[in-house]
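Standup, Tuesday
Yesterday: got the pipeline producing structure tokens again.
Today: sanity-check two examples.
Blockers: none.

Example 1:
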Amino acid sequence: MGIAVNLITYLIGTMHLPSATSANTVTDFMGTSFLLCLLGGFLADSFLGRYKTVAIFASIQTLGTALLAISTHLPQLRPPPCHSQTICKQATTSQMAMLYASLYVIALGTGGLKSSVSGFGTDQFDENDENEKPQMNLFFGRFFFLVSLGTLLAVTGLVYVQDEVGRSLGYGICSISMLTAILIFLAGTKRYRYKRTSGSPIVHILQVIVGAVKKRGVEVPKDVNLLYETCLDQSLRIRHSDQFKFLDKAAIIRKEDYGGDSSNMPPNPWTLSSVTKVEEVKMMIRLLPIWATTIIFWTTYAQMITFSVEQASTMDRNIRGFQIPAGSLTVFFVLAILISLAAYDRLIIPFMKKWFGKPGFTNLQRIGIGLFLSTLGMAAAALAEKKRLSKAKEVGQNAVVLPLSVFLLIPQFFFVGAGEAFIYTGQLDFFITQSPKGMKTMSTGLFLTTLSLGFSSAACSFRL
């Protein structure tokens, strides 16, 4: 966040890119970061495990931030300064190439890290232990609270360092912070709980789909006990459900599935899948409607850290002689998250336990609350932009700073920030708890792709 939230001002002010191009660069960078979460989730669930994935991709992210610090430090990697009486020279292709290389190394590291770190956190709790299960439910809110606390430091202290002291120092602080975090993470190696990988979830999904297609002409037996099931421990089995019955065809037993001799050969996994495997695929399909529903929120979020920062740069940001950096306006966004999470953890949950006997809102209710709050945020943003444009027409195009207080933007930051507090924790909880045990990291990656698509949608709106 220390990179993303203030990157647009660097692209416009230092690299001299047009505002629309700068906004697209930021949204493409952020979108790619979250899209690569699918790759990170696949590698964690299939080969590396969450611990190794976190360690490897956090190191890649650290390398990327170090490259970014170098690229912003060397004068030959940026165009000459632009003065009011000269024509601004835009950054060359080679200068942008180094910047893009740094950003997309960071994006690769972020993709692997974000898909695994929350899942690895939940691995430290035993869902079957009645004492630990409530602690895991609280984990999501507290995990995101600490993430937001880091973001608060980024949009205040780090943005100030970037704008007033030097970009390279600001990005160098990011790199050193990540290196410190990796060392702390590795220090706990002997104390962690580890979950074994259960093979590639993508292969499992494809096997069920291929098996069902191959047997599309076969009728599913009315007695579900006739469907194939391996000798799994009873606690690991998933009971048959009546949804998506077409996939049940993958569990229909035929002699051909055993190569013609059912007594000596194991079944072909591409023609015969267990009921548990089929139900795991059904569980992943059930995630998709919620996945699609939340994309629009992250489009709103992308507007907050790009266009709203650009709005702030055109408004009066002086407080008693001190000029607030435009990127630091997102502090109200982060404060809204922290206040909402703290209020939910300390006020709403105890209230609901006392009066309704419930441990807080369900994950779907939190998602709904987040969508509602973001709607209010966009309404406030529309009103603020209408007033800003009206003021711009009054003073004319020559005004560098509009005589309009930047605090006019606070309501939109606050509502969308509060919405993120509910929607992020609700989504994360939903995708981790409702996904199959062997696909939790990939499902987290699937959840994070909603952020990617949200940023892509925002990029399309900037192009329009």
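Example 2:
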Amino acid sequence: MKHWQPAGTVYGCLLNFQREWDLWAPRMSQDPHKGPPKAPVLYVKSANTFNPSGTLMLQDGVQEVDIGATLGLVMGAHGAPHSAVLLNDWSVPHDSYYRPPVKFRCRDGYLGCGSPPVPWATLDTSGLSITVQLNGQRVQTVHLSELVRPVARLLADVAEFMSLQAGDVLMLGTDVLANGQRPRARAGDTVCLTVPGFAPWVQTVQGESA
């Protein structure tokens, strides 16, 4: 499975890291929501986003993209994960993370995949960290111990309102830096994600004229 890509629907999860939750908490009581979310806030990465290649092409005047390092739970039978995969949930920088606009998250090629899945039975996700490198320099470390909803709770909470089918992928969420932003890449940059036990994930960003 040299160039793996999802076989089912891919779901992202917002506000699932403690730092971003804490940054948004003072505004969660404001309109239109008037309170923190009681269930996981999910969104869909459509099939046009699946990108197992080594390149992300920027289009329509986009100058930079947010890096969204995450693990995806690949579902087996009965809504239980059978493997996990290293993914980059690219997005165009935008202000709201309550209801992410499709045009910022579902552009062509905006789900970096390709690295082979790792069997679920071999993993302890609570102890894993994702290292994000930009042009060879570490810019972020994503600690899965800092999830608001750890894997078991996230799966249980999602199961209360929807069923996950075999082949679906549930991403655990993406973390932010201390300033509330995600690391950003521009044309010419190379991003590398690494996690112990997983094959490295690498993509280079190219501009429209490349």
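Quick observation on example 2: The helical segments are 18-24, 102-105, 151-159. The longest helix spans residues 151-159.
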